[in-house]
Each structure stands twice: as C-alpha cells, then as structure tokens.
C-alpha cells in the first residue's frame, strides 16, 4: 500500500513510480556550518549569503572562511518562509531559519527542487518552523533518467517564466526612475519635501483571521488576501485562494479599491515591506497592514513611496529575529510627502505605463500559471 501523501488530492503518481519517505532520500546537512547575522551583511563581497528571504541572495560577506561546507548543487529551505532555493555556487548561510538539503544519489537534486516546491505546507502557521511538516512528505522516485528529463523540461519552462518576470522588472525600473527624478530618494529626501507620519497620509488597518471554528465565515464572497498575494512581480494583488462570506466579512478587516497593502509580519526582516495595490475591495490577514490614502494622496504615488522606502519600513521592525512592524510603528514612520499635483502627475505616468504594458503583465501572469500547470503535470507523469 502506498503511504498517504501530504497532499493526496494532487499527488497522482504513475503506478510505475516508486514513492519513498522524504527522510529516506533528502538529508539535512545544515549542522556544523557557521551562520551570518543580517546585521553583518554587506552589499558586495566575494561570498554571497543565502538566507530564507524571497531574493536568491540576501547579501554578501567578505569572510570566505564562512563558506558553507556542503557540496553544490544543494537545496536551501526557508524553515519559516517555506521558500526553496536551488544553489549551484559557494555560499554562506544566513543566521535564522535556514535548512541545507542534499539528495540521495538516486534522486536528482533539480528534480527534487521542483517537486519539493509543490509540497503542500501549512500557510497559516505564522512564524513556526515548517521543516517538521516537510519531513512528513513523500517523494516520487522514477528512474534517474526520467527525473533528469522532467527537470530539463521544467528548467526550460522556468527560464521562460523568468524572462517574463525580467520584462516586468524593466517596467518597474522605468517607473522607479521617473519617481526618483520627480521626487528624489524618499529615504534621504534630497528635495526637502515636507515630512509626515504614515498615519497622517493614510488610514492604517491591520488585517485579521476570522475564527476557523466558524466554517460559515469562509466560502464565496470577498477575497481574503495573504502575504503570498503581495510577494509577486505584479504591482497589484494577485487573486486570493480563500474568500470570506458575508458573515466572515463582517468580522474581518476590509479595505476599498485603491488601498496599498504591505507585508508587516514575515519569516525574516528582508521580507518586510513587500507592497501591492488593491484594485478591488479585499479582506486580508494579520501579517498585512493596509494603507487607505486620505483625500489628496494619490494611490500610485503612495505605492511607490512605500516601495522605495522599504528600508525605513524595515527599520521600524520591533523584532530582530523575524520581521514584525506593528500598526503603531508603521503609523509613525516618517516619509517625505510631495504636493498633490505632482503626486497625480506621477499617477498618470504610472497608469500610462501600465496601459502600455498591460499585455506584458497579462502574459507574465499567464506564463506563471502555465508553468505551475506544467509542474503538476510533470509529477502526474504526463510530460
């Protein structure tokens, strides 16, 4: 009899594939390696640091003796963030919540990387560690040649997905350049704009999770946004996987179209400050604070102001081990605020760029969806 998988409704492996426990073929080799505190990161250096943040490289260190004593390629897992990274170069480990994984000789590491990213880990466990759940998973073990073939196909699809993301990044670079030309860097405020607290330019709202004990709170209705819907290349929130009913909405936290949502609780400080625009009414969980601009403050200006003030937002964190910016701390962050007319002028530029490149955005999201579908097909043996 096959073992129960962590997500049985998804894992429909071919009958010819062997399925084995995670711990039989994937090994935790983290122990004994030095770790670098985030306060010790530098912007450039000979040795990149891999942590559990969303970016592949979290920073650098000049101390090459801190190199992780693990043969590459290897897989790095964010124990709090649930992020997997496939690493092919020498690196140092970030200090908090990182697991370094190696695979048995009959499990291709690239195949394992794509598979493990699909394992259904709890998303509402907050800052708790997730490796304990990952160890309960089972891993398909088709012939090594088949693993390599599947990994090669997914590599090509992933490369296409990344190209679409890079194209979106170029659009972001253009808008960022326009913002900086018009307003200067909000962190240093070289143009001397009037400085105001965040709470003076927007209403700050912290999200919540309606009680799971009330099943009638969840179902068809308003989208319930999580940090995964913010941590994407898109300027706008992606579609939620859960919704709140009318009853759930009544006890949830809801903001209107035009609000700006910020990740304020995350697995590591580097994840704090991810931001996206709500282009419809949404509810959201407690990891997120929403800014509803007051009259005279342009949504798109506010979005880029927050986006480029990430260091200031992260500096308001009340916890050194993980990212946590309270509603009170966020409300008191000081930001330069330009005149309303200039804000609206930037807003028009933003909308013009979005309209011009809306096909690019649509294509990027479609490519992401197609890639995810391809991964699912791969592990059903349909490639």
Description:
With 383 residues, this protein is of the alpha+beta class. The chain folds into two domains: 18-141, Adenine-n6-DNA-methyltransferase TaqI, Chain A, domain 2; 173-339, Alpha-Beta Complex (Adenine-n6-DNA-methyltransferase TaqI, Chain A, domain 2). The protein has helices at 22-25, 109-116, 131-134, 144-183, 198-201, 246-251, 299-307, 310-314, 327-331, 340-356, 358-378, and strands at residues 18-21, 26-28, 35-36, 47-50, 59-61, 74-78, 84-87, 92-94, 98-103, 138-141, 194-197, 202-206, 218-225, 242-244, 254-255, 260-263, 265-266, 275-277, 282-284, 288-293, 323-324, 334-337. The strands form seven sheets. The protein has a four-stranded antiparallel sheet. It has a four-stranded mixed sheet with strand order 3-8-4-5, with no helix packed on it. The chain has a four-stranded antiparallel sheet with strand order 12-20-16-18. A hairpin with a 5-residue loop joins strand 6 and strand 7. Helix 4 (144-183) packs antiparallel against helix 10 (340-356) and helix 4 (144-183) runs antiparallel to helix 11 (358-378). The chain starts with 17 loop residues before the first strand and ends in a 5-residue tail after the last helix.
